[in-house]
Amino acid sequence: MKPFLKRHSPTILSVIAVAGVVVTVVTSARATVKALELIDDDMSEKEKILTAAPCYILPISFGVATIACILGANALNKRQQASLISAYAMLDKTFRQYRKTLVDLHGEEADQEVIEAMAVRGCCDYHQIGVDTPDQKLLWYDEYSGETFEAYEREIMDAEYHLNRNFVMRGYSPLNEFYQFIGLPPTDYGVEVGWSMTYGYSWIDFEHRKITQDDGGRDIYVIDFVFAPDDDYLREWE
Description:
Elements: H1 2-38, H2 45-52, H3 57-106, H4 108-121, E1 126-128, E2 138-142, E3 147-151, H5 153-170, E4 172-174, H6 175-182, H7 188-192, E5 194-196, E6 206-211, E7 220-225
Helix pairs in contact: 1-3, 3-4, 5-6
């Protein structure tokens, strides 16, 4: 029960806040009717306020509780987002350390073999970009999302160009922007990592590596980022 409440507490507080808004409105309307019944025209302004004030204790209480729920839900959402970002950063760091250790122990060929094996395993589940002649498309693999998809080479080149155009004009680009251009769905991870000119390069280079399957299946083209996206790319832009 506790893990459920911890995981869904922002949603629960938001639902309570919505209900609190309704209750506050209803009790305020009833308090106004009651206050009007108690107030006499012969009373002074001070007497009217003192007479009506007790009627609004309940709606004010509901209003304060509703505001507390809204602020609490917002705080919990920020905390969960911060935890998620930290988790992605740790995952990215671990992934880089793993690849570096693999290269140090077994060489770059072993690292390339692992990526190629991952591409071959995922080649049967791919996305199709809306062009009418899929038999002329190539099969592509993105190692960060693990997605395999079909696209013309010119579509990939066009996506890489438009990503770099935005990168040059803006100074930074998130990974999800590249996914948008090649037709892949955005990922949570793609929001947190990207490229920045503050790292010393002014163009995001790509490499396309062809994998020929031993079983005679379709060739797969792996999209490699020469400069890996970083989880701290927005540090100088915030």
